[in-house]
Write a structure and sequence with these properties.
The complex is a heterodimer of chains A (480) and B (1015). By secondary structure, chain A is an alpha/beta fold. Chain A is built from 13 helices and 17 strands. Chain A has a single domain (52-226, 308-476), classed as Alkaline Phosphatase, subunit A (3-Layer(aba) Sandwich). Among the domains of chain B are: 2-142, no CATH class; 247-387 and 662-765, no CATH class; 441-586, Sandwich (Jelly Rolls), CATH 2.60.120; 910-1014, no CATH class. Classes of the chains: A alpha/beta (480), B alpha+beta (1015).
Chain lengths: 480, 1015
């Protein structure tokens, strides 16, 4: 056996023990019994879940997270009755005993949307005039209008949708996939995070892409739109690529001597980590250079190279997908419209509508759409009740956890369907309520994973992304 | 079959039968992580049977009464042997054939077979065989091992009596001998002192310390090193690194905005407690209930911050009651994890499924921590808290308060003084103001109109892009498909800020000014944004102002002077929002921020008779303030002192502490953990399966703390020594150091664990003595070199046939390079406020809640302070520490992972601290070592690794040096650039290309796997 093979074998064993010892049991055993123990040398590092539970319909995920919670009532869920009742009190029969956020103790008054809704595509999906571009891809989406959650404030609600629980300490969706499925490439992390929406709005906490109790190597790696794209990816001033290469060559040789002397497989891992870091240094600048895109593509997204924006991030997401990154998490801030909702939401839509639609078209055109799952949505919805000033077509909406809308598309998602419905005032789901855990089960399902079987033992308990709930949304998936 | 002998049921959970032929050498060693091998025929209930039942049966036949089926309970012998509702007997001791349990687990009919298919669980043949043999042997039962008081076991017999150095080694060696494995030889002295120094102080040994140890011929040489390190002030710092993970210590709130908080006095307390070798029982009592001790000292109160370290929220619209409940839950979960080594968190919502722990008992523990007078959504310092000025701060504060009072009185007296000339001068000044006001009447300021917002991709673009109003001022036109058109705003009054809409947006504002004749006009404009905005002003098409404030800098009013022409003038403003809110402000009188001036100007505009008292005083004071040099000086002095006082008050540390309310808050079981669904009322108490609280005493936190450190407690001693073991060996004797319940792994060396626990508890909970016992063992002193014979049998080193070889923890990785380079001040006494090392710009600010957070990097020595003092911001952890597996401290962490990732390599190669440390180390090499390349290389190795280089290493290092040097030949500018990184100045005496090349060598050595590893 060559040294490289020996190292690979040892590393594989090491990985196995590192994880097997945590109690993933049979899955790790399957890894060990695989014929090719040298997965790493093929440029793939397999995850704990070497064998999927069933054939996946998606290989990767782009999750467009709308931080702050967009108003479903002004975008996807038209409520003529609510418009009619604008200015009248919200029937107490609906709100009695309900959790209320900032409106607690105030007069609850109905407010309908001021925006016009239309039916789009052959599917006749309903969207408001704020989403002219998304309307053009309506037939590609599964719109879920009956989402509901358990948390009424931003921090616990984002934590819940990302980790399956409101309490901190659990891994996020991307970390679960990184842990379970490993990476598909040798120069980029398997879980990448992109943020936009400026330095303002609801805060983004690193918990939202954290690895919780999983090894920290599974946490999302942030690609920044300003400064170095990945922290510390650039050589320090005065260090040339040649002198860096000399240093790395010397380092590799010295570490190999050590490896031969003490035989610790961790040294082999360390040697590899420096080589991968070097490859990242050369590949990341190329990846981030959206200036390479033809003007037509830039125009389609509305992106300008070098200008941080949601559009630029959507384009980067496509470039990351092409390079085999498994989970790309976008966060776009600025949807928390307690006041002056009509004008603010119109502005947010002008920044996000076009790029999101362009992303879908672009993925389709490149043949990536069928195995890429695209998700759009926030942490909860907004109330049918007004918050703040209500004058001259101006109004605001508070946090609403009982009903809101997200859409999913691509990899295994049924195109052109609208799932679930809410009551006449948009307060509660009346058809096919979808809980956060159901949504998570569905995402795992698309990736070929049975959400009940994908567990990690921590503190004596087998944890899963869907906590103790979760049911795949049958109507949303092709292979229901 | 023989190779599967040791496979634990846990490992085979949920798998189908695995043929023995697959059990190749690749995984036979796995079971070594678990229990000791079973004796060939005798079944041990705890080792062999309970794990099968717990894993496969307890979910429906366990402690959780709401999930229990068929009335069968397999976690208690009485119930398991009793007659079921069906009349059957699950277990008939001695008679497996009659036992319903065996019938059901072997049933052919899938509908009858247990565990049911829907559970996804399945028993292996071996497990069924074990259950059968166990019942045949009479179904002996014993309690879960961890819930039985540990007894001091006799030392096991060993064949090689010469190897053991102390009791520990008998347990380790006897197990090794049973496995037929020999221990490793003792490591060499250089390795030993480096290992010890990292383990006990978190730092590398100095060259002198290594030399002293090497030259010490006495038999106590090693012991002397151990003793020296245990009494080093850095010992407390090293132990705190670990304890702060358990205490989820952080410098910020965690939830939502993640405001900073002042808690570092607690960190100081922890460090001092370890350095004073405070016994673990007192260490426990003070942290859990120091405030309830009779006449508690200030330090004992500070210690209780342990349970105020949890995350808190200030989120608007949140329900305080919900968060209060989260805080109490955090205290219960942390306290039980740290002292009981058990996770009771699931009982927050339902009875524990695997351990005898009910939901009611969870809320009885909850009641202990539910009595704090906290409100739920307070900002720091959230009461109850202590205010802890140093003597110096206290006296300075008193002094400032007194001085300010005196000066203020002085100032008032002067303001009210009348003397000749002053009132006349004021009248004259008021006349001047009135004149200015009159000249404005020659102007006609028309109403404002506005158009916007024009949206851009970025704020910068919104500022620089020329939207239509900049090129054509046509009020009849509309833009963007009619969405934007000019609107008159007659209601807008000058001097009052108006809100505008849109982020990354521009709004244009226009007004016409008619002037009787050409003249100058001064005015103030602002966007009324808390930070970051842009403003442009045009007069008659001429740009007169363009100013953008970026990032989180506050935006202030700007004074503009323009030349009006006679007749109509067009004043056009562009307000640009960089995020958050923004607005528009215009005034001829005063900037938005100067309320006094505004008041003065409006008072002056009125005829004297119409002015009220306040207005008169405003004018009087303002005039005197501006015209008396004495008053001006006084004013300046006062504002300087007030600023100093404000800064001093900010610097004075506070610490949140525990305190019980006078009247106890009632505690109810929260159904499904929902804070709004109250179940039955419960009172404080401890779980039934553990010893009970002493009768007749007050049941409060103090009683709970004392109960934990009762010498008879089955868990606390074991849990504590297991974590100390983990510090040295990387893995505990119980690998699941956070789970000692039935779902955790059993100890690899149960006798050793119990021996250590008894030794620790009976020896007065002496932490340093316990650590010394471990360090003195032959087990600890073994070489950590990997052995081919162990690679397949015990790669995780659970049998301890070799010493630990482990990557250093995050803090030590960084502290090590600081120490090697000399940047670290090793003599600086422990303790003090948190520090802010280098960090890439914008890390905090870019994701913050409306710029509520700003990173201000430390200067000087604080940049090179030991890493445990780094400001711990939960929502944006320091990347240098986080990437090396330091937890974000949102929740209590018992064991850190040790990962290897490319991001770590990027840090040690490129991050400022590491680059600077390499350069400073290079300076040392050049100044302190001999002149030849070889001498320098040897010096570098000895300093960094406590050993000289091997010849082959020397060759590779020299070759690398020459290659790097070559790249800097004729590139002095590059070399200088490299030397300028970091705030410590480069040594100007050194030739810069040499310095650059040696910086490369230094970095090479600082990046070696060995440098980052305790060997």
């Amino acid at each position: 056996m060559s040294l490289e093979q020996e190292l690979a074998l040892q590393m594989t064993r090491r990985r196995f023990f590192g994880r097997g010892a945590k109690g993933i049991g049979s899955l790790a055993l399957a890894t060990l019994l695989r014929e090719d123990l040298y997965g790493d040398t093929n440029g793939k590092s397999f995850g704990a879940l070497n064998r999927l539970h069933f054939a996946p319909t998606a290989k990767r995920i782009i999750y467009l997270f709308m931080s702050g919670a967009p108003s479903q009532l002004d975008l996807f869920d038209p409520k003529p009755k609510l418009v009619e009742m604008t200015g009248q009190p919200m029937p107490e029969s609906i709100t009695r005993g309900q959790r209320i956020a900032q409106l607690a103790g105030r007069k609850l008054v109905c407010v309908g949307s001021k925006f016009q809704f239309g039916r789009h595509g052959r599917s006749g999906a309903q969207m408001s005039e704020l989403l002219p571009h998304m309307a053009g891809v309506a037939d590609d989406l599964a719109i879920i209008r009956s989402m509901h959650t358990d948390a009424i404030n931003h921090d616990p609600a984002v934590t819940l949708i990302q980790t399956g629980g409101q309490q901190p300490g659990r891994p996020t969706m991307g970390a679960w996939f990184s842990y379970g499925l490993g990476s598909e490439n040798r120069q980029l992390p398997s879980f990448v995070v992109l943020t936009s929406g400026g330095g303002q709005g609801q805060p983004l906490l690193s918990r939202y892409w954290g690895s919780g109790f999983l090894p920290s190597s599974h946490q999302g790696v942030e690609f920044r739109s300003q400064g170095e794209p990945i922290l510390f990816v650039s050589n320090p001033g005065g260090v040339t690529p040649t002198s860096r290469r000399h240093l790395l060559d010397g380092l590799r040789d010295l570490n190999r001597l050590k490896m031969d002397a003490v035989g610790d497989p961790d040294i082999a891992a360390r040697i590899k980590s420096f080589e991968m870091a070097y490859r990242m240094q050369t590949s990341v600048p190329d990846l981030m250079d959206t200036g390479q895109e033809p003007p037509k593509v830039l125009e389609q997204y509305g992106a300008q190279p070098g200008v941080p924006s949601f559009a630029n991030n959507c384009l980067l997401a496509r470039r990351l997908v092409e390079r085999g990154v498994r989970f790309i998490q976008l966060y776009h801030r600025g949807w928390d419209h307690h006041n002056s909702l009509p004008s603010n939401i119109a502005l947010q839509c002008r920044q996000t509508d076009r790029p999101a639609a362009a992303l879908i078209r672009d993925l389709k055109q490149r043949g990536l759409f069928e195995d890429t799952l695209v998700i759009w949505g926030g942490e909860f919805g907004r109330t049918p009740m007004n918050q703040g000033d209500m004058t001259r077509g101006n109004y605001g909406r508070d946090h609403h956890m009982k009903a809101y809308t997200i859409w999913m598309a691509g990899g295994g998602i049924k195109p052109g369907v609208t799932i679930g419905a809410t009551d006449d005032l948009g307060y509660n789901p009346v058809e096919e309520p979808v809980h956060i855990n159901d949504f998570q089960a569905t995402v795992l399902h698309c990736m070929g994973i049975d959400h009940e079987k994908f567990t990690y033992r921590f503190q004596g308990r087998d944890f899963r992304l869907t906590d103790v709930g979760g049911k795949v949304i049958g109507k949303a998936v092709v292979s229901g | 079959m023989s190779c599967l002998r040791h496979v634990t049921p846990l490992f085979l959970k949920g798998t189908a039968w695995i043929p023995a032929c697959l059990a190749t050498a690749a995984f036979v060693f796995h079971p070594l992580q678990a229990a000791e091998p079973e004796n060939s025929s005798l079944i041990d209930f705890n080792r062999d049977i309970r794990p099968i039942l717990a894993d496969n049966c307890y979910a429906c036949h366990g402690p959780d009464q709401n999930q229990r089926m068929a009335g069968l309970r397999l976690d208690s012998r009485d119930s398991a042997l009793g007659r079921l509702g069906s009349g059957n007997l699950a277990i008939v001791p001695g008679n497996p054939e009659e036992s319903e349990l065996i019938r059901r687990v072997t049933a052919e009919d899938e509908a009858l077979r247990m565990p049911p298919a829907w559970s996804g669980k399945e028993l292996t043949r071996r497990q069924i065989d074990l259950l059968t043999r166990w019942i045949r042997q009479g179904a002996p039962w014993s309690r879960h091992w961890a819930y039985i008081r540990p007894e001091r076991p006799a030392l096991p017999k060993v064949a090689d009596k010469s190897w053991p150095a102390n009791a520990i080694d008998y347990f380790v060696l006897s197990r090794l001998e049973r496995e037929g494995i020999g221990p490793s030889p003792e490591a060499d002295r250089r390795t030993l002192i480096r290992r010890l120094t990292f383990d006990l102080t978190g730092l590398p040994p100095t060259v002198r310390e290594v030399e002293n140890f090497l030259s010490d011929g006495s038999p106590q040489a090693y012991e002397k090193v151990v003793d020296r390190l245990l009494t080093s002030p850095h010992f407390g710092e090293r132990m705190a690194m670990h304890w702060l993970d358990l205490a989820r210590y952080a410098d910020s709130d965690g939830y939502h905005v993640d405001f900073p908080r002042s808690m570092w006095k607690y960190r100081d307390w922890v460090i001092a407690a370890f350095n004073a070798n405070k016994p673990f029982d007192r260490f426990t009592i003070e942290q859990l209930a120091g405030d309830l001790l009779p006449d508690p000292t200030l330090d004992q109160k500070i210690a209780t911050a342990f349970n105020r370290n949890g995350m808190t929220s200030t989120e608007g619209g949140a329900d305080a009651k919900e968060y209060l409940s989260k805080y109490v839950i955090d205290r219960v979960n942390t306290t039980t994890t740290v002292w009981l080594g058990s996770t009771v968190a699931c009982a927050e919502c339902h009875d524990h499924k695997f351990d005898p722990f009910t939901q009611q008992e969870y809320y009885r523990l909850y009641d202990f921590f539910h009595q704090i007078p906290e409100k739920g959504l307070d900002r720091d310092p959230a009461p109850p808290y202590l205010w802890l000025p140093s003597e110096e701060q206290r006296s300075r504060l008193g002094q400032l308060e007194r001085t300010i009072r005196t000066l203020e009185a002085n100032r008032q007296a002067r303001l009210d003084m009348t003397h000749d000339g002053l009132d006349e001068a004021q009248a004259e000044w008021e006349g001047e103001l009135a004149r200015i006001h009159r000249t404005r009447q020659e102007l006609e300021l028309k109403e404002w109109s506005m158009i916007g917002p024009f949206i851009a991709q970025s704020a910068e673009e919104a500022f620089s892009r020329s939207f239509p109003p900049e090129s054509e001022l046509d009020f009849s036109k509309s833009y963007q498909e009619g969405k934007l058109s000019w609107n008159a705003r007659p209601e807008w009054k000058d001097g009052k800020a108006q809100p505008l809409l849109g982020t990354k947006a521009a709004t244009y504002l226009h007004r016409r000014i008619l002037a009787e004749s050409a003249r100058k006009l001064k005015f103030f404009v602002a966007t009324n944004a808390p930070y970051a905005d842009g403003l442009k002003v045009w007069l008659n098409g001429q740009l007169v102002l363009a100013k953008a404030v970026e990032g989180c800098e506050p935006a202030k009013s700007i004074e503009v002077e323009v030349d009006l022409r006679s007749g109509a003038n067009d004043l056009l403003l562009k307000a640009v929002n960089y995020g958050g809110g923004y607005g528009f402000y215009f005034s001829l009188d005063a900037p938005l921020e100067d309320k006094t001036l505004m008041q003065v100007m409006s008072a002056a505009a009125k005829p004297v008779v119409e002015r009220d008292g306040a207005e008169k005083t405003a004018l009087r004071h303002y005039f005197r303030e501006k015209n008396s040099p004495r008053l001006q000086a006084l004013g300046e002095q006062l504002s300087r002192l007030r600023k100093e006082k404000e800064e001093l008050e900010q610097d004075i540390p506070t610490v949140r502490v525990m305190e019980d309310m006078e009247h106890r808050r009632p505690t109810h079981v929260l159904i499904r953990g929902d804070y709004r669904s109250k179940g039955e009322r419960v009172s404080a108490g401890v779980p039934e399966f553990l010893p009970s609280l002493p009768l007749g005493e007050t049941v409060d936190r103090l009683a709970l703390a004392r109960w934990l450190v009762d010498p008879d407690h089955p868990l606390v001693g074991r849990v504590a020594v297991n974590r100390f073991w983990q510090l040295f060996f990387g893995t505990g004797i119980v690998r699941t150091a956070n789970e000692f319940g039935t779902q955790g792994e059993p100890p690899t060396h149960p006798g050793l664990l119990d021996w250590l626990a008894r030794e620790f508890v009976d020896g007065g909970w002496d932490i340093q003595s316990m650590l010394k016992t471990m360090a003195m063992s032959a087990t600890y002193r073994q070489s950590s070199r990997f052995r081919p014979d162990l690679l397949s049998r015990d790669p995780a080193n659970r049998l301890l046939a070799k010493g630990p070889r482990l990557r250093l923890p995050a803090e030590a990785i960084r502290d090590n390079v600081l120490a090697i380079s000399g940047l670290l001040d090793r003599d600086r006494p422990p303790g003090g406020p948190s520090v802010y090392p280098y960090q890439p710009a914008g890390l905090w600010e870019n994701k913050a809640f409306y710029c509520r957070t700003k990173y201000e990097q430390s200067r000087g020595e604080d940049l090179y302070r030991r890493s445990l003092y780094t400001f711990w911001k939960r929502s944006v952890p320091n990347p240098v520490l986080q990437t090396f597996d330091a937890p974000d401290r949102e929740v209590c962490v018992v064991s850190r992972e040790r990962t290897v990732t490319p991001l770590q390599a990027l840090i040690t190669l490129n991050e400022t601290t590491y680059v600077e440390a390499a350069r400073v180390f290079a300076q040392r090499i050049l100044k302190e070592a001999g002149p030849s390349v070889r001498e320098r290389i040897r010096f570098a190795y000895r300093t960094a690794l406590a050993r000289p280089p091997q010849p082959e290493e020397e060759k590779i290092t020299e070759r690398t040096f020459r290659r790097i040097l070559e790249t800097y030949q004729g590139e002095a500018a590059k070399a200088r650039q490299l030397a300028s990184i970091g705030e410590s100045p480069a040594d100007a005496d050194l030739e810069v290309t040499q310095l650059a090349a040696w910086t490369g060598v230094a970095k090479l050595i600082l990046n070696l796997d060995e440098t980052m590893t305790k060997e």
